[in-house]
Amino acid sequence: MEIMQHRGMKKYLCHHFSVPILQSRLGPDITVEGIGFNETIVINGVRVSFHPAGHVVGSAQIRMEYKGKVVVVSGDYKLQDDGLSTPFEPIRCHEFVSESTFGLPIYQWNDIDKQEEELRQWIAHNQSYGRTSVFVGYSLGKAQRILKAVADVAPTYVHHSIHRINQAYESIGIELPKYEVLDFREDIKYVDQGIVVLPPAMIESKVIKKIPNMSYAICSGWMTVRGARRWRSADAGFALSDHADWNDLLKAIRSTEAEKIYITHGQTTIFSKYLCELGYEAEEVMTAYGEEESNAIELEGNV
Amino acid sequence: MKAFARLVYALDSTNKTSQKMMAVHVFLNEADDKDKLWLLALFSGKRPKRTVSTKLMREWVLETTGLPEWLFQESYSSVGDLGETLSLLLPPPKGYWDYSLAEWMHRIRALEFTSEEDKRNFVLQAWDNLPHQERFLFNKLLGGSFRLGISAKGLINAISSYYGLEPSAVSHSIMGEWEVEESAFEELVHGHYVDNNLSKPYPFCLAYPIEDVEETLKDLSQWQIEYKWDGIRGQLIKRKDEIFIWSRGEELVTSQFPEIVVEVAQWKGDFVLDGEILAISNGEILNFTALQKRLNRKVLSKKILSEVPVGMYVYDILEYRGVDLREWAMDRRRALLEKLIRNNPSTQIHLSPVIAEKSLGQLKVIREEARQINSEGLMLKHKKSVYHVGRKKGDWWKWKIDPLTIDAVLIYAQKGSGRRSSYYTDYTFAVRDGDKLVTIAKAYSGLTDKEIQEVSRFVNKNAIEKFGPVRTVKPLLVFEIAFEGIGWSSRHKAGVALRFPRIVRWRKDKTVEEIDDLASIKKLIH
After folding, report:
1. Can you tell me the ipTM of this complex?
2. Which DSSP string do the residues of B177-246 spell out, in sequence order?
3. Domain final residue, candidates B350, B366, B400
4. Which residue does chain A place closest to B86, by CA atoms?
5. Which residues in A lie closer than 8 A to residue B456 (C-beta atoms)?
6. Max Cα separation, chain A?
7. Same domain assignment for residues A117 and A219
8. Average pLDDT of span A203-210
9. CATH code, domain with A233
């Protein structure tokens, strides 16, 4: 859910699973109320309910119904079942507000099995050259998927910011593979030839150089394009994304059977234009949190 | 093609020369002979001619995917590479064709004599039987430009280190008219098909920028002072009636400068000279913008040869009649060089003059005025210095004129290609022309990654118009642009072209009202 990235709301309403994550990110003192999926509450006469968006654990689409008219706001979502988040559920509605982070036809993800297999092959390749495999991915959602994909392959170490999110995951009953927390203030030569998972901000930091024989891979949908990988001079890039790809965006929109589509966040102009050509009534909405093209410019914010 | 795909991926994945070299070594270990030859052929510009046009490839992708043309354009401008865009847009492959690079090249070459229908069938099937990375390479092999993470020079260095050979020898060995089908890789790189000794160049002696002029030139009589020329450093070799010209990047550029070859062929004896290749017309050195018109052309037309004749100003002799003279003192080499030139009068090869001024004050004036004869400053060479290998402090100094600078405003921004395709890295700047703005220069570098990100954010928020990948932005950001020279140009709207424009700094303290105007910039031209 988008709300989570923007501090300072008076009150939060989110799925039960998101409560510990919000507290972990924003502090224990926030006013937050949990709600289940498909559970309806009424606010000012509007019937409001949350439905799985499949983006990360607890992420939800919000359905609002007033006098028979139904509007659904997708938030960030993906259709692929990552095995950790509750899978995306299409909701029939009159109006659908969809994200479009990867709203270009060049973005087509592989199956999850194949993606995970590629991570493991890369680790095996590194091991044959005596190298340490470092994965870089957003600490909420992506890091846990990486951990799951590489479970039992080699000793695994994570940055403490990822550990904090992992604890939130575990507090709601999601079991993650075994790992150790890495303390960069100490000598960390022992991670040699193991697996390290780090958040994107660490790429710029100097401490990353303490990792012996490092090869590093960025896990992000942007890695589809060769130029994005070369810009970061990553040793490898894996298109592992928590957003819907081109085909899944189209599929999700079709499945809502909505008459009117609003496109926000990402390739809004291009994607809404294409939807109009397909015969939808679609238009872009500007929001406070999305830029025209948010590409890899903010790798940290949106991977 | 798996080994080749792995090589390209590995070359893409690092900026470190050592790792690129290792990736080439891995390829040399695991690929078979013909594939290695093809690698050389592709990287050294010997690729076969295009058999399928990009226009057809685009049409077929649009047919296969059902996407509209405009969406294809948007995708292309986001990716920045046509072969890659085509590959990404296609649906996932259904099978896998496991051919070697040589087999692929063979099939691609065979397309030359087939019908469009046969080409279409072959290409569509290939697309449907290759995973993305190999499909992308297949598109490149079909004829696009082959720039893949390593320069020709880098590749030659990697091969020579693998076999323990001299890079210049490998460079010469792989020149010429060899064919993949008729050659064997190891014999080729070991020079079995050519005589390397004839072409073998010496490493260039390089100068450092001067640090303390007064201190260095305390005893002026010990120094040989020359003009520093603004052309291409070249080593001119004549041995056993064969002539070679090497550039400083150790590339053989002989065929680009036929006038020099014709003249030097008349000279007697064997020798190796060091000098500067320049555009010279009626004894006058032309602005570098003229020489640029001559460079990297596939065909030199009669027109261009007469418009921009090329010659050489020579300033050193490294070998004479087979004897290596690099340990001789500068003044002794100079005396021999002067004699050689005296005995071989010519119109396009000149002796670079020695400046005889006797005081530092006079030299300073000459340096200041150097731009008037299209020189970029002075060279100071110690009269007792040997010809060093590479850069060594103390014996040779360059004393360049200060770069010119102007303040200009950013008006267009374009995303980079390749590594930088997600950021706006290519900028066009304008200066004032009356009450209008006129473009003056394009510049790509000089900003930090952080600043590039900041400019990119500005472009996203302040774009006025979109022309494909180019954004017109509000003229608000002012940059200081430095350049080495300026010349008239009919190709540029402003009527002038800058030499080596680059961003010195972002002038956040200045507004668009404070930028330079075109009339005053034109006054800089000599």
Report:
1. 0.89
2. S--TTT--HHHHHTTTTS-HHHHPPPPPEE-EEPS-HHHHTSSGGGEEEEEEESSEEEEEEEETTEEEEE
3. B400
4. A106
5. 297
6. 64
7. yes
8. 81
9. 3.40.50.10710
pLDDT, tens only, B5-56: 989 888 887 777 888 899 999 999 999 999 999 998 887 667 777 889 999 9
Question: How much of chain B, in percent, has pLDDT values that exceed 70?
Answer: 96
Q: Which is more confidently placed, B508 or A109? A: A109
Buried b (16+ CB within 10 A) or exposed e, B455-479: bbebbbebbeeeeebbbbbebebbb
Average pLDDT over residues A109-121: 95
Residue A302, pLDDT > 50, answer no
CATH number of the domain bearing residue B278? 3.30.470.30
pLDDT at B419: 55
| Domain annotation covers residue B190 | no
CA dihedral B368, B371, B372, B373 (to 10 degrees): 120
Tally the residues of chain A. Answer: 303
Mean pLDDT score of chain A, rounded to an integer?
89
Indicate whether B368 and B408 sit together in one domain: no
Same domain (yes/no): A121, A179: yes
A261: distance to nearest CA of chain B, Å? 19
Distances (CA, A) of A202 to A137, A208, A296, B404, B458: 10, 7, 16, 40, 25
Measured in angstroms, the CA of B64 and the nearest CA of chain A are apart by: 13
Structure tokens at A62: 């919000």
Do B358 and B434 sit in the same domain of this protein? Answer: no
Helices (H), B309-359: 330-343
User: What is d(CA A255, CA A226) in angstroms, rounded to the nearest whole number?
Assistant: 32
- For residue A136, what are its two tokens? 């870089």
What's the pLDDT tens digit per position in B91-106? 999 999 999 999 999 9
CA A35 distance to own-chain centroid:
21
CA-to-CA dists, residue A99 to A85, A107, A251, B78, angstroms:
18, 14, 13, 18
Q: Which residues of A touch B419 (CB under 8 A)?
A: 227, 230-231, 233
What pTM does this model have?
0.71
CATH code for position B458: 2.40.50.140
What is the rounded distance in angstroms from the CA atom of residue A51 to the CA atom of residue A58? 9
Given this model, what pLDDT does residue B152 score?
76
B97 falls within a domain: yes
Which range marks the domain in which residue A50 is found?
A: 2-107+243-298
Residue A303 counted as domain residue: no
Beta-bridge mates of residue B320: B271, B323
Give the per-residue pLDDT at B145.
Answer: 58
Q: Could you say which DSSP state residue B118 is in?
A: H
Q: What pLDDT, in 10s, does the model give residues A226-250?
A: 888 877 778 899 999 999 999 999 9
Residue A153 has pLDDT above 80, yes or no: yes
Q: Element (H or E) spanning A139, and its range? A: none
B375 and B455 part of one domain: no
Q: Does B29 touch chain A (CB under 8 A)?
A: no
pLDDT band at B292 (very low <50, low <70, confident <90, very high): confident
Per-residue model confidence (pLDDT) at position B490: 78
Instruction: Tell me whether residues A108 and B75 touch, CB distance under 8 A.
Output: no
pLDDT at A4: 47
CA distance linking residue B73 with residue A273, whole number of Å: 14
The total number of residues shown for chain B amounts to 526
Of B56, B38, B58, B57, nearest to B48 (Cα)?
A: B38
Q: In this predicted model, what pLDDT tens digit does every residue of B304-333 receive, in sequence order?
A: 888 899 999 999 999 999 999 999 999 999
What is the domain extent for residue B134? 2-141
Interface of A with B (CB under 8 A): 104-108, 110, 222, 224-231, 233-236, 270, 273-274, 277, 291-293, 295-297
User: In the predicted model, is pLDDT for residue A301 greater than 50?
Assistant: no
Q: What is the DSSP string of B76-102?
A: HHHH--HHHHHHHHSPPPSS-----HH
- Angle CA A161–A163–A169, to nearest 5: 115
